[in-house]
Amino acid sequence: MANITASVVKELRDRTGLGMMDCKKALVESNGDIDQAIEDMRKAGGLKAAKKASRVAAEGAVLTKIAEDGNYGVIIEVNSETDFAARDENFRKFAAEALDLAYSNKTAEVEGLLEAGLEVSREALVQKIGENINLRRISRVEFSDANQGIVESYVHSNSRIAVLLALKGGDESLARDIAMHIAAVNPMVVRAEDVPEDILAKESEIYSAQARESGKPEEIVEKMISGRLRKFVAEVSLLDQPFVKDPDIKVSTLLKEAGADIVSFIRFEVGEGIEKDEVDFAEEVAAQAKQ
């Protein structure tokens, strides 16, 4: 039997787009011959799924699962190419399977979860519905015991936005209200001091260019820049935002009245950060008509 090295498995995976375990199995059966492994995969129909792997999948769903004692939670994003496929019962079953596996394995590693058996289900779903399907990302929050805090979640009704929140003090109702606020308003950070320096530098550069176009004296320009920066930081910091259910109070005030504090939050929105292909359907139809 040929020695199947990790580099050979990676090469086959890069060439086919299939999962690591499938590639390793194919190489074992072909005695290490990559070309033979590809031919065998084609005969078995496996490359049908691989061909779809290059297609952009920016639709889908985000899901969460919380432990009964409220000390642990997990959030995942599963993508499809179209919203239609994301509503398919088979897609929903796969997403639920991925969520349960991530929850029980207490992992945020996508590759590890796929290798644990989920890749077989993913490829079967790709074959069945004819679209590229991806488990894109996983994140988790956990307290060592239930007395340390509450983990709560909120999923928007269409499963396109989900939030996982870790809260010290307060109760489940407060935690859910804050999670709902995060889903609606999309803060960048919890506290003003958490805003990354590179983001501040970029915003400062933009405000500086805008302010200097005004032609005002330098001391006025500097005040304009600092004022706009303070406003920006307040807008993106959760604690400084007006509470979405009662804009007359800030989130920080709501928490202080309840004797609570936010440890962290995670917000997933379907497809965020994925560069989507812009399709002009009129041009596409015209091109097909010419052919």
Provide a compact summary of the structure.
The protein contains 12 helices and 8 strands. With 291 residues, it is α+β, with helices and mostly antiparallel strands.
Describe this structure in words.
It is a single chain. By secondary structure, the chain is α+β, with helices and mostly antiparallel strands. Helices cover 50% and strands 19% of the residues. The strands form 3 sheets. A 3-stranded antiparallel sheet has the order 1-2-3. The chain has a 3-stranded antiparallel sheet with strand order 4-5-8. A hairpin with a 2-residue loop joins β6 and β7. The longest helix has 20 residues, at 110-129. It is globular and about 75 Å long. The protein starts with 5 loop residues before the first helix and ends with a helix.
Count every beta strand, where a strand is a DSSP E run of 2 or more residues: 8
With strands numbered from the N-terminus, the spatial order across the biggest sheet is 1-2-3
Unreliable residue stretches? none
Shape from CA axes?
Answer: globular
Q: Kindly state the percentage of residues in helix.
A: 40-55%
Number of helices: 12
- Percentage of residues in DSSP E strands: 15-25%
Q: Between the first and last Cα atoms, what is the distance in angstroms?
A: 49 Å
Alpha-beta classification: alpha+beta
